[in-house]
Amino acid sequence: HTPGTHPWISTPGATRMETQTMARDATPGGGVSIQALSHTTLDGARSVFNIFVRTSNKRLCFGVCPACDEPADRFDKIFHEDPSRLRTAAVAVRTRDGKVLGAIVCCAHGQKRTGEERLMEPDPAIGESHVEWLAVLPEARGLGIGTDLMKWSYTAVKSLGATSMKLTVLGGNRARVLYERQGFTRVGPNGCAGVCVFGCVGCCLLGCPYRDPRSTFNAAEMVKAL
Known about the structure:
The protein has 7 helices and 8 strands, in the order αββααββαβαβαβαβ. By secondary structure, the chain is an alpha+beta fold. It has a 5-stranded antiparallel β-sheet with strand order 1-2-3-4-5, with helices on both faces. Strands 6-8-7 form a 3-stranded antiparallel β-sheet. A hairpin with a 3-residue loop joins strand 1 and strand 2. It is globular, with a radius of gyration of 17 Å. The protein starts with 11 loop residues before the first helix and ends with a strand.
C-alpha cells in the first residue's frame, strides 16, 4: 500500500495515545520517540517485524518452509478490521529521519486477533492483555528502546481495562532478561508433560528459532500485574 492512504486507521483513541509519547537520546542515531502505531508508520513496523523473523530464524514445519516476509496487505489487515488495535501497538521512531527502529504489538480483552495470534495464545480474558510481539532492529539494540516500548504498552492496555499482561518468550531470546527486569514472572509451562507438549507444538510451528533446537522446550509463559 501507499503510506497515507488508509483513512480507516484514524481513530479518536489512536490520536489520544499518539500524544502520549516518550523520548530518549539514542546516540548515535539521535532522539527516539515512542508513539502509537499509525498509517504513516505501518510500513516501518512491518519492516522491523520481517527483519526480526528472519534474524531469529523463525520458520514453519520443522524449518522445511522458510518464513516469507509479511506482505503489507496481510500485516495491515487486523488494523483495518479492528482500528482499536492501533491503541495497543507502538513504534520507536528516530526523530532525525523518521526511521522506525522498533515496534510492539499488544492485544487486550475484546480486541480482534488474527488466526496466527490465536494459534500462539488464547484470547485474553477479562482484565488480561498479551504481548503479541516486540522487536528492535539490531542497529538499535542496547539503547533502552525495548524497555520504553514495554512501558508505553502498560498505559495503552490499562486504558482498555487490562490489569495484567502476559507473554511467551522462547529459549535463546535475550529479551527474557528485559521482561524479568520489568517485573514479569514465569507461570508456565509446568511439569514434564506440559514442557514436552509445549515444546513439541512450538517445534512444529516454529522450527528452530535462534538456531537452538531446545528453544521451544525452554520457552516460558510470563505474566506481570499492571
